[in-house]
Automatic annotation (TrEMBL):
Reaction equations catalysed: precorrin-2 + NAD(+) = sirohydrochlorin + NADH + 2 H(+)
PANTHER family: SIROHEME BIOSYNTHESIS PROTEIN MET8 (PTHR35330)
EC number: 1.3.1.76
Keywords per UniProt: NAD, Oxidoreductase, Porphyrin biosynthesis
Siroheme synthase central domain ranges (all copies): 130-157
Organism: Ureibacillus terrenus
Name the UniProt record assigns to this protein: precorrin-2 dehydrogenase
InterPro entries named among the record's database cross-references: Met8-like, NAD(P)-bd_dom_sf, SirC_C, Sirohaem_synthase_central, Sirohaem_synthase_N
GO biological process: siroheme biosynthetic process
Pathway per the UniProt entry: Porphyrin-containing compound metabolism; siroheme biosynthesis; sirohydrochlorin from precorrin-2: step 1/1
Superkingdom assignment: Bacteria
A GO MF term: precorrin-2 dehydrogenase activity
Amino acid sequence: MENIQNTKKGVFSMYYPMMLNIEGKNVAFIGGGRVAYQKLKGLENTKANITIISPSIIPEIEEWMKRHRAKWIQKEFEPSDIEQAHIIFAATSHAEVNREVKLHKKEHQLLLLSDNPKESDFLTPAVVRRGKLALAISTNGASPALAKKIKRDLEQQFAENFGDYVQFLEEARKMVINKIDDAEKKKGILVRLLDPIFCELTINGNIEKRDQLFMKLFAELR
Ligand SMILES: C[C@@]1(CC(=O)O)C2=NC(=C\c3[nH]c(c(CCC(=O)O)c3CC(=O)O)Cc3[nH]c(c(CC(=O)O)c3CCC(=O)O)/C=C3\N/C(=C\2)[C@@H](CCC(=O)O)[C@]3(C)CC(=O)O)/[C@H]1CCC(=O)O
Ligand SMILES: NC(=O)c1ccc[n+]([C@@H]2O[C@H](COP(=O)([O-])OP(=O)(O)OC[C@H]3O[C@@H](n4cnc5c(N)ncnc54)[C@H](O)[C@@H]3O)[C@@H](O)[C@H]2O)c1
């Protein structure tokens, strides 16, 4: 009940959403169980340097490592393991080990304690990805299960190939920006590209018709 009152008064700390480019950054996992696996999947295609420190890893992680680059060091946590890390996931089943990670991390390193959001520097939202579109859902830690449920709902709303539409918009935008100088005209075409017909034609695979329509619009409005 105390939390409900805090929320009403607006005194809880709000987390800040960001899209991080972590290519080449060192990400350390302490623990190689279910939670570590869930967070690892979220790092797919980020090109981060991932190291897992854990005496054992679950078979799912072993399988995952065949398709994605990550290094497993089979041992228990020691403070020297996180010296070079930019981001740390402490996901062991032992609260005291997680606490030790917190104790030894430096001020500038970002730590997630899987068993203690209040003591963490960040949390991980539920994410729906469709190509370059990312929809992140967070409850600020209030109800991870709700974040997951909303994710499932959104997965139904956004077709599997919705990323193709985002790709089309990116390419069309590049062309508009390269070929048109007038700011108002540019904006006009970019807004018209959001007409649902372009989305529908892309999702249904009518690419030729979509591109014809785009060229027609481009010729009319340029
Ligand atoms: C969304 C998602 C993303 C992801 O993991 O990638 C995510 N948790 C997911 C699922 C999930 N987690 C838990 C359940 C069981 C039901 C329940 O307990 O409610 C379920 C549901 C299930 O598994 O079905 C248990 C749980 N979670 C945390 C604690 C510790 C605590 O709160 O103290 C405990 C208790 C552990 C215990 O009892 O010991 C903490 C966190 N979990 C977060 C994220 C962060 C807040 C996100 C936000 O709300 O903004 C935060 C704060 C830190 C973090 O981990 O980042 C992912 C859905 C993934 C997907 O399917 O897409
Ligand atoms: N944040 C979340 O979304 C979430 C969800 C569920 C559970 N949890 C919490 O996360 C923690 C981990 O849960 P889990 O289901 O992944 O547990 P798990 O038992 O599947 O995995 C724990 C991992 O920690 C490793 N480990 C144990 N001691 C270690 C040490 N000294 N050094 C390095 N690694 C060590 C084990 O080898 C194992 O790989 C629990 O505290 C749980 O309460 C968090």
